[in-house]
Design a protein that fits this description.
3 domains, 8 helices, Myb/SANT-like domain-containing protein
Length: 201
């Protein structure tokens, strides 16, 4: 979540970055996952706040900048022309709305070791099992038990052996018709065969 303890600091930040007005208090989705990939170090600017609540070393608040700029200790009389000169460090002479240049972090927090390999392997195994099951179910739709089919054909009365063989070979070659044949009872099976082989009559 984007947080800012100081109301005054937030107002000054919004003045410098109007587009960030709606970010305060907003929950960052998938922060834990993003932290693994990107790390959770903060940008080194005068707006950043460290984990302990303090501001990064080397960058002071606007009030401190102004105070140090206006304090008598920071002003001296020039030896050459008698004018006052500022002896502070050049980084404090920047415009108020301009952030100091970004500094590369000294050390990025170590990334949390991932245990996703084992999870991926488990998911792959489950997916493979589901695929094999689906293939088996698909094959079962197009295959018929040959032994059961032959037994069903032989149970029909009035068919000589040659016709039984012919009917079995015909049905075994066409799974759709074989499934229809096996669905019928014995009387309907005989009618079905004689309708297929009308010349048997």
């Amino acid at each position: 979540m984007v947080e800012c303890d100081s109301e005054d600091l937030w107002k000054r930040y919004i003045a410098a970055h109007p587009d960030a007005r709606g970010f305060r208090g907003k929950q960052i989705e998938m922060y834990d996952e993003l932290k693994i990939v990107c790390g959770n170090y903060q940008a080194p600017s005068r707006w950043a706040k460290m984990k302990d609540g303090s501001h990064p070393t080397g960058y002071k608040n606007f009030e401190e900048d102004s105070a140090s700029f206006m304090s008598p200790s920071s002003e001296e009389v020039s030896d050459t022309d008698g004018t006052e000169s500022y002896t502070g460090t050049p980084e404090y002479l920047q415009d108020n709305n301009q952030d100091p240049p970004l500094v590369e972090p000294v050390r990025q927090l170590p990334k949390r070791p991932r245990d996703s390999d084992a999870l991926q392997e488990a998911m792959f195994a489950v997916a493979s099992s589901i695929r094999r099951l689906a293939d088996a179910m698909e094959r079962s739709k197009t295959t018929v038990n040959s032994s059961e089919l032959l037994q069903a054909v032989m149970e029909i009365d009035g068919l000589e052996e040659a016709k039984q063989m012919y009917a079995f070979e015909y049905l075994n070659a066409d799974p759709i018709k074989a499934r229809a044949f096996m669905t019928y009872n014995v009387r309907m099976r005989k009618t079905y065969l004689f309708r297929q082989f009308w010349w048997w009559k």
